[in-house]
């Protein structure tokens, strides 16, 4: 992962530009941060372990400088210590890097005599580039050869002390944009980092590189030929990136869900009808394969159960990092759906390329417009979640589940399994969902339940079918932000071993929204109760009857059609996790060791 930023221009206060940019890129990693800049003709490198605020304390913002690069790190090679922080310098070359140089050991071997200071692959990249520069005495030739030698993924921002007014950038398999200003230009891992200064940007393509001065941008292909580029405009409002009245971005984003759902529904309707015909009308789909990572996989599981049940099409959900290295069973009759909030997740991107190589039609469900995955998919359904800042996803996950639900309805209709009457009922109910989420947000029981849970070591989540898929996301949410160990179990599977872990100190959250199998999960709840395990139920009022003595807490979601219950039932799980993490004093928006956009495999 990691976030990179670079500036060259008229602004003598480029340190402000670098730090503002890095602050908006901190979601990409926050193990350490650093900047390199030229001031009074001299190169300065300042770096510090931990958050950007630590780096800021070490900087003298009065130093005049109009060229610099900056980095916020998510450690891959080497501990999150200052010595491993970027930028890395070797002689005339100083660079910041996002990605992994896979053959760095091989390259390092060639420079055995060089005294490497860090454990990073990035310092090796700097050493290689410096060597190529010394050999060629020309930066463009050096970068051209670098592309030939370096394997893996990289977005590099580079300065060379021989050319104190030029910023260089090169990219392969990691995101990088060039911001276009007036007498100033930028590079960044994403466009938000430069929006304060310009909304004009160029997307750098793989295996291309750029030479950037304050007035000129030149882009070259891997053979060093100059290539043309398109300047795009980003029109989203920058101020969405503030917490507003909320203590945390996560809480803000949970509360934005009614609006997100409303906007996403609107974007999937044509003449008030759920309509994906422009993507799917003429497609004869025999199988669907969903590829994704993290919460997006969990959304995929909800989609699997719904599409299989309502549209009678088999769906495989593949963890993208596994899909890349296994035998795959896909062909032209498969619809492949990559799901990704960021649109940059390296494993999902590579899995998508595999699907394309088999001739599959690829239809992405993505949040970030113009992201790498979005650009490679044949078509994209954009969720309307807006920028998501908290590392733990909430509103993007929910919008992904919504789109998959709508796809299940559309495909069910296409396969004559949903008749017009049911379709109308579903479409009417759909419009009531934002208000129903609103009412769930007002429930005050989550904090009470969180008090019961926050001191526990282990928590289980159980459910069957689509409720099991919800458990996966509920469990992931809880562990990633509160650091409490939790596991999602298919309710019927608990008795095959794991029930031995249940005792009065190990609570279970049971999700029961599916009427046809509610009684089965209730039996499993009773099994837990009779071993003194505490039970928290998340359920729908018309699902079943249960004795008060069989559970300890109950959250009842508003009445809705069964197909829409996952959209409601996840909200209590998000809020319970949030309040547990808050009671534990965790860094909710930036949990330890994580990053929001995972651009390494
Ligand atoms: C990271 C994030 C998760 C996210 C996953 C996939 O692990 O912390 O919240 O679900 O990446 O990201 P994507 O952007 O592809 O949805």
Task: Please give the alpha-carbon distance between the first and last residues.
Answer: 9 Å
What small molecules does the structure contain? 6-O-phosphono-alpha-D-glucopyranose
Number of strands: 27
Please bin the fraction of helical residues.
25-40%
Summed over residues and divided by their number, the pLDDT gives a mean of 94
Q: How many separate helices?
A: 19
Structural class determined from secondary elements: alpha/beta
Net shape: globular
Order of strands in the sheet with the most strands?
A: 3-2-4-1-10-9-11-15
Q: What is the percentage of strand-forming residues?
A: 15-25%
Whole-number radius of gyration?
Answer: 25 Å
Largest sheet: 8 strands, antiparallel
Q: Segments where pLDDT lies below 50 for 5+ residues?
A: none
Outline:
This protein is an alpha/beta fold and 601 residues long. It contains 19 helices and 27 strands.
Can you tag this structure with a few keywords?
601 residues, alpha/beta, 8-stranded antiparallel β-sheet, 19 helices, 25% strand, globular, binds 6-O-phosphono-alpha-D-glucopyranose
Question: How does this model look, in words?
Answer:
- It contains 19 helices and 27 strands.
- It has 601 residues and is of the alpha/beta class.
- The chain has an eight-stranded antiparallel beta sheet. It has a seven-stranded antiparallel beta sheet with strand order 5-6-7-8-12-13-14. Strands 19-18-20-21-22 form a five-stranded parallel beta sheet, sandwiched between helices.
- A hairpin with a 4-residue loop joins strand 12 and strand 13.
- The mean pLDDT is 94.
- Helix 4 packs across helix 5 and helix 7 runs parallel beside helix 13.
- Bound molecules: 6-O-phosphono-alpha-D-glucopyranose.
- 6-O-phosphono-alpha-D-glucopyranose binds next to helix 9.
């Amino acid at each position: 992962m990691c976030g990179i930023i670079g500036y060259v221009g008229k602004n003598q206060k480029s340190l402000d530009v670098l730090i503002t940019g890095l602050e908006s890129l901190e979601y990409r990693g926050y193990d350490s941060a650093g900047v390199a800049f030229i001031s009074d003709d001299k190169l300065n490198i300042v770096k510090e372990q931990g958050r950007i605020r630590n780096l800021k304390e070490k900087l003298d913002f009065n130093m005049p400088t109009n060229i610099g690069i900056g980095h916020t790190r998510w450690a891959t090679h080497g501990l999150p210590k200052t010595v491993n922080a970027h930028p890395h310098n070797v002689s005339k070359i100083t660079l910041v890097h996002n990605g992994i140089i896979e053959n760095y050991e091989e390259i390092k071997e060639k420079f055995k005599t060089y005294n490497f200071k860090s454990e990073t692959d990035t310092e090796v990249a700097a050493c290689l580039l410096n060597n190529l520069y010394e050999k060629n005495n020309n930066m463009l030739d050096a970068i051209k050869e670098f592309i030939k030698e370096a394997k893996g993924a990289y977005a590099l921002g580079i300065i060379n002390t021989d050319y104190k007014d030029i910023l260089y950038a090169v990219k392969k398999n990691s995101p990088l944009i060039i911001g276009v200003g007036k007498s100033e230009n930028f590079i960044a891992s994403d466009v938000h980092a430069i929006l304060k200064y310009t909304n004009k940007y160029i997307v750098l393509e793989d295996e291309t590189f750029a030479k950037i001065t304050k007035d000129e941008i030149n882009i070259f292909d891997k053979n060093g030929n100059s290539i043309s580029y398109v300047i795009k405009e980003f029109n989203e409002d920058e101020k969405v990136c503030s917490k507003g009245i909320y203590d945390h971005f996560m809480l803000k984003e949970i509360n934005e869900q009614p609006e997100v759902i409303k906007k996403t529904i609107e974007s999937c309707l044509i003449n008030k009808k759920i309509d994906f015909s422009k993507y799917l009308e003429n497609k004869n789909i025999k199988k669907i394969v969903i590829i994704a990572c993290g919460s997006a996989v969990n959304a995929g599981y909800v989609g699997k159960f719904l599409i299989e049940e309502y549209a009678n099409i088999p769906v495989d959900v593949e963890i993208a990092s596994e899909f890349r290295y296994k035998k795959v069973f896909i062909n032209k009759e498969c619809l492949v759906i990559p799901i990704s909030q960021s649109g940059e997740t390296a494993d999902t991107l590579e899995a998508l390329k595999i699907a394309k190589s088999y001739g599959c039609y690829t239809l992405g469900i993505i949040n970030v417009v113009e992201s790498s995955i979005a650009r490679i998919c044949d078509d994209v359904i954009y969720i309307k979640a807006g920028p998501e800042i908290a590392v733990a996803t909430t509103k993007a996950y929910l919008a992904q589940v919504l789109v998959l639900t709508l796809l299940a309805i559309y495909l069910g209709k296409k396969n004559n399994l949903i008749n017009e009457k049911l379709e109308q009922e579903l479409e009417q109910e759909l419009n009531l969902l934002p208000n129903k989420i609103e009412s769930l947000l007002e429930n005050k029981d989550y904090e009470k339940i969180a008090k019961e849970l926050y001191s526990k070591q282990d928590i289980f989540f159980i459910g069957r079918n689509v409720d099991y898929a919800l458990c996966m996301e509920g469990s992931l949410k809880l562990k990633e932000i509160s650091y409490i160990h939790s596991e999602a179990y298919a309710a019927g599977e608990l008795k095959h071993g794991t029930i031995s872990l249940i005792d009065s100190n190990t609570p279970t959250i049971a999700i029961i929204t599916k009427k046809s199998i509610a009684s089965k999960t209730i039996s499993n709840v009773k099994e837990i109760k009779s071993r003194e395990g505490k039970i928290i139920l998340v359920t729908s009022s018309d699902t079943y009857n249960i004795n008060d003595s069989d559970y300890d807490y109950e959250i009842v979601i508003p009445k809705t059609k069964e197909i829409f219950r996952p959209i409601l039932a996840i909200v209590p799980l998000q809020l319970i996790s949030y309040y547990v993490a808050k009671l534990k004093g965790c860094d909710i928006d930036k949990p330890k060791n994580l990053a929001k956009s995972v651009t390494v495999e």
